[in-house]
Amino acid sequence: MRLALVLMGGGARAAYQVGALQALAEIAREAAPDSRASPFSVICGTSAGAINATSIASHADDFSRGAERLVKVWSAMHAHHVYRTDWPGMIGAGARWLAAMSFGWAARRSPRALLDNAPLAHLLREALSFHRIDQMLDTRALHALSITALSYSSGQHLTFYQASEPIHAWRRAQRTARMVELTPAHLLASSAIPYIFPAVPLELDGRHEYFGDGSIRQIAPLSPAIHFGADRIVVIGAAAPRPEVPAAGRDNAYPSLAQIGQQVLASVFLDALGADIERIEHINRMVLHLPHTVEPESGWRHIDVLAIAPSERIEVIAARHLQRLPRTVRGLLGAVGGNRASGASFASYLLFESEFTRELIELGHRDAFAQRDEIAAWIGRAGINDSSQSKHEGPLSY
């Protein structure tokens, strides 16, 4: 059985994934005490989940070590590790936006983003070992790693991947794949939250295109794992599959920009996963009615999905930690209503502060252990990779 791990986006909310990964590593160690290798031969990540996915993939030979490294980084996280929070940086960004809105007709160049994520680029180069990905693929400890991003230039949703052997690149409506050597630039592109972080230029077919967050227009987040031959998928999201409400409850006041923004970000980061799982469950029901002699020719096959999602509302947790953000960031959020409880969901995507991330790590650990028996059974059934599985096509709708 080929077991896949899919990590979704969500900015600072991705700290939740780290706690879940720590629990998965502990469960794997109990299920297979003689093996340190990761049970996940296929790893797919989007946005902040792409960063976690790359770290786990680079330690496919020692799953526990990879998870603990992530716990260490996220437990000591602060906003200035991800984006500039100093007064000159924040004032400069604000001045560029103000000038663009006031004198746009005379501006030669519009501002690229609200925040400068240059610190994140430095962190990725320092914290991740990209050379180990090739080593993991060469030793077959890993079958494939994929990172998704959206091209602002062409509108295509791209899955960039490295694999232990060539995989037939799929092409769907506005979705395709490219086999590349993954770099920090791919992670920056995948995690570039629209308007908040700048787009990243990547080379594609001999030309440069600008890419942003892979969660945008991601209508089938589980598709890459299926195309890489996964039979079972463990997916860790950044929110429960239910509508979010403001932490302070509903009121009749006109919504702030932060309240509107949090619904936009929810549509980017949170809505696609539930719909994709429902689609797979529908396909599974159809496969049950296909004659076994027809199923291989149809390209349809049964896929099991186990979702790990927060059992508590993250925006409620975020509301308790808003004051942990630097004063400059609180001032910026205050301008759009994001420093109040009603805007906590919007602020949660930028709340890269250790008190918040540690609480999410603990929540992810608890939620994963709540499914301990099922996870242990899946890990126990994940055997040695069968290279022939890479030739299988996923369901036709993918």
How are the elements arranged and paired?
Elements: E1 3-7, H1 15-31, E2 42-46, H2 48-57, H3 63-75, H4 87-102, H5 118-127, H6 131-138, E3 144-151, E4 157-163, E5 171-172, E6 175-179, H7 184-190, E7 200-204, E8 207-213, H8 223-227, E9 232-236, H9 257-269, H10 271-288, H11 295-298, E10 304-308, H12 314-319, H13 327-334, H14 344-348, H15 354-369, H16 372-381
Parallel strand pairs: 1-2, 1-9, 2-3, 4-6, 9-10
Antiparallel strand pairs: 3-4, 3-8, 5-6, 7-8
Task: Report on the architecture of this protein.
- With 398 residues, this protein is an alpha/beta fold.
- The chain has a single domain (2-101, 115-240, 258-290, 304-384), classed as Cytosolic phospholipase A2 catalytic domain (3-Layer(aba) Sandwich), CATH 3.40.1090.10.
- The chain has helices at 15-31, 48-57, 63-75, 87-102, 118-127, 131-138, 184-190, 223-227, 257-269, 271-288, 295-298, 314-319, 327-334, 344-348, 354-369, 372-381; strands at residues 3-7, 42-46, 144-151, 157-163, 171-172, 175-179, 200-204, 207-213, 232-236, 304-308.
- Strands 1, 2, 3, 4, 5, 6, 7, 8, 9 and 10 form a 10-stranded mixed beta sheet that branches.
- Strand 5 (171-172) and strand 6 (175-179) form a beta hairpin.
- The active site is at residues 47, 213.
- A motif (GXSXG) lies at residues 45-49.
- It comes from Paraburkholderia phenazinium.
